[in-house]
Amino acid sequence: MGFQFVELLVEALQSFAFLIDDGGTSCYHKAVLTDGFSGGDMTLFNALGFRWDRSAVPTSVRSHSIERVCFRLHRMLPEFVWDASVLEGNPFTFLEVKTLLDGVTIGGRKIFDQEQVLNLAESSKRLLAMVKGGQFSLAKSVFIELNGIVARKEALEWGAFRGEGQETNYTPDVGLGERGRYTPLPTLPGAPELNRVFREGVSALQVCDPFERATAFFLFGALQQFFFDGNKRTSRFMMNGVLMSHGIDAISVPAAKVQEFNEKMVRFYLSKDATEMMAFLAGCHPDAEAILSHSANDLAKQGPHRERMPS
Q1: Which residues, in sequence order, are CB contacts of 244 under 8 Å at separation 6+?
Q2: What is the domain extent for residue 131?
Q3: Residues 117 and 100 sit within 8 Å (Cβ to Cβ)
Q4: Pairwise CA distance, residues 18 & 169, whole Å
Q5: What's the pLDDT tens digit per position in 80-116?
Q6: How many domains does the chain have?
Q7: Measuring CA to CA, which residue among 69, 114, 37, 81 is closest to residue 242?
């Protein structure tokens, strides 16, 4: 038993280095060089704070005109908003969301839940306007504008990185249920570290194809927790902004997959391995069957010599 424990410990130390910031109060982790990854991959992984099997990410994703992908999201707006609200534990039903978006208030529901739904709808519409107008980019200004709508009246502060507003000391963490809690970089006045991580992360992502860049940014925002609240929601909007700006349909995590989503996100926070979550997001895309089929064929062509995640 003792020997097995030592083996597991050695394997863990070989796979990751743990960067402890601020005297040990932060649990921000950076991946270190491991067998099977190129130096360029490790530059990307270290900038983002997590890693994944890049050879398993779909590269053959059907693209359309920007007008076409925006029209699809506009048409499915009630479903898109409902899916997102369910991921937040919002009790509104699909019919109630549709009724609310039609301008009719729902009796017997909390104002907080109603405002969350309306914020999601407004954020969706703002994202559509940005993409249609060619104004969307992976820029901080876009990121904080969307968070300012998503988390309005819900977060401690919204529309600014942690530490850039009045609150400069409180560092929120992410509950992982029975697996404990994940603590991101500490909140500091002016958010110098968060701004550095954001700049380096966005710069590193430019080497990725659009689908990989989009899904990686979602996980980047979820892991680094740039805001006091609404990080996953805001980062999913950014993910879809990248996709639609390249003519790729937006991804909505179905309400029916909320438990699977949460379980996989917990494993991501613990392992800093995004391979499973990227495959999950690909499976949520409207062209999932074609995407995954192409991906499987690509992997088969690469054969046994393709890069693999360390076992």
Answers
A1: 66, 69, 70, 73, 127, 131, 136, 250
A2: 16-305
A3: yes
A4: 23
A5: 999 999 999 999 999 999 999 999 999 999 999 999 9
A6: 1
A7: 69
